[in-house]
Structures are given as C-alpha cells and as structure tokens.
Amino acid sequence: MDKLKLIECPRDAMQGLQDFVPTDTKAAYINEILSCGFDTVDFGSFVSPKAIPQLKDTSAVLSKLNISDTKLLAIVANERGAIDACEFDRIDYLGFPFSVSEEFQKRNTNSTIDESFKRVERIKEITDKHGKDMVLYLSMGLGNPYGEEWHPDIVTAWSKKLKDKLDIKIQAVSDTIGCGTPELVNSLFSTLIPSIGDVEFGAHLHALPENAKKMIKSSYSAGCRRFDVAIKGFGGCPMATDDLTGNMPTEKMLEWLNEHNISSGINERQFGIAMEKSLQVFP
Q1: CATH number of the domain at 5-278, out of 3.60.21.10, 3.20.20.70, 3.30.365.10, 3.40.50.300?
Q2: Per-residue model confidence as pLDDT tens digits over 1-16
Q3: What is the Cα–Cα distance from 159 to 174, expressed in whole angstroms?
Q4: What is the pTM for the complete model shown?
C-alpha cells in the first residue's frame, strides 16, 4: 500500500486574510509546522503581489525557515513565478492550479484552459531543468458553480492528457469551493486511480467540519493516500466565490486516522504547539 502523505497548507490558509501577517509571525508559525512530521508544507507562493498581497514576502519567509526533513511546496501561476521559485534550493515542489472550469481559470490565473495547458508545459520544462517536481491541482475537480458543463469524465480526460502529454505525475483533485459529496469523491478517485497509471493522486478538499470525516473516508477507501490539510480548516480560495468554504481541518484528518488505527507520522505533541501558534496568525 502506498505511503500516506499529509501536506499541511499554511499558504492556502493565510492567502485570503485581509490584514497582513508580519513576516516573522508567518515564519515562526511555519517553523512549528515543520517540526510536526508532515510530508510536505505548502508554505508560500510566487505570484503577483497585486493578486495575493498576503504572500508578497514568501522569499523573506523562506529565508527564516528551519532546516527540516519536511519538503517545501510553493504555488506559481506562470513561468516568471516558476523561474523565481527555482532560484531556491530549499523548494522541492512547484504547484500550479489548472482548472477544468474556463471561468475559474480566467479568474485564478488570467488565462484560458488551453493557454494554461501551454503554460503548464513551459513550467514543467523549467522544473525539470532545475530538479524540482511539479504538483498540478485539478481545480473545480468536484463541481462547477458557474453554470458550465461539468462531469467526472471531463476531469478524467484532462488528467489523462496532462499525464500522457506533459508527464505530470502528481495531481491533486481540488474541490475549491466545497461542492463535492462523499459519493462523488469516492466515484472520481475510484475512476482516476486505477485508470491512469504512474500518477500520485491527491485530495485537496474544502469541506465543512461536520462533513470532513465523510470526505476523508470516501477518498481513502477509493485509494487516495495524499491529503492536503490546514490546521482548524483555515482558508479557502479567494478567487473562487465570496463565501469561502474552509480547508480540510488537519485535526479532523488526524482524528479519523487514529479512529482507524492508521499511522499519520505526526508528532501529536508538536502538532498541539502548532495549533496554539495558529492563534497568533488567524483572527
């Protein structure tokens, strides 16, 4: 069975905050997270500060992070961001939000789906050249709020094309606005995982706390072993809708794993410290 990977996402949690979080506060919080034992931490982004002003200090935050066995992931939206991110040896993964919704792709990266596919191709060339791995988020992977056509077959077709044409081997299905159901999550992963080989599929789920464990169970039982989480479910995508549905709460994920005697690999004492530290970051 594939190893369980938990990806803590303080970047996703912080990006929509209105008040700027000081660089030292960000770094201190992420350093506590780096001591917990997560496989990867999604810590920042190299995007236009006009689009995401909260993360304009990502480079400065990175310089203050402790050395850790935990890998670091940064989000990029274009080639310029990828080139900037690749200047840092500490960064292991570059993430790109690729939407199966035309409207959301325009909102999020100011490009069409076809333009974004070409952009992914160029970013992949950059990451390969610099020895980085690419993580592609299949945004709006579990539904579409804009009245556009949506079907699991559309998600599967894009996933297959991204693997076959561009060799994207890490793909995270992103619910984005929390419109997925446990049944749909199970059905999609049950289709994707066996049908597209040599791809590590992840779940980037935005869910209400009362629905979180059902979503985890449906993903895990379908074979998903990579989960994006955020302490207390903070965050959501500021480019999607005005009403944010929070990220998958890390503590709900850990509770579910403990209930099913599945090792998380997380130091629970240190995780408690990180939970307390989050109160200094989030209002």
Answers
A1: 3.20.20.70
A2: 579 999 999 999 999 8
A3: 12
A4: 0.93
**pLDDT band at 242; cut points 50, 70, 90:** very low
Domain layout of the chain by residue ranges: 5-278
pLDDT band at 216 (very low <50, low <70, confident <90, very high): very high
Q: Is the confidence at residue 61, as pLDDT, over 90? A: yes
